[in-house]
Amino acid sequence: xxxxxxxxxxxxxxxxxxxxxxxxxxxxxxxxxxxxxxxxxxxxxxxxxxxxxxxxxxxxxxxxxxxxxxxxxxxxxxxxxxxxxxxxxxxxxxxxxxxxxxxxxxxxxxxxxxxxxxxxxxxxxxxxxxxxxx
Length: 134
Prior knowledge:
The chain is mainly α. The protein has helices spanning about 5-15, 25-30, 40-60, 65-80, 85-100, 105-115, 120-130. It folds into 2 domains: about 5-60; about 65-130, Serine Threonine Protein Phosphatase 5, Tetratricopeptide repeat (Alpha Horseshoe), CATH 1.25.40. It is about 75% helix and about 0% strand.
């Protein structure tokens, strides 16, 4: 994996998990120094990220491959949200929710997309669902 691709995917992953707990390594510092990392260091960071995904999968009682699939939908929804494609964001986050259940990140993104798509009542109901399940 190239350093650029690693940096982009790791930052995206952290944004999804960072709210819940601190990762086992300080990736923000690592991102600033990514160009100076050797392959061994990149391998260690990737292993740490895999551990973090495994831990969240365990908390959600999901196999890791299902967790990764849900994270892919979540990421696709996040990209759609950033480009203003709210209907696509809604669809992708609903797919993520089918896999990830009550885990808050896809519900939060869904609520935001629903709001910007002109569905404030449904957005509010979705946000309340997140708050009730925390």
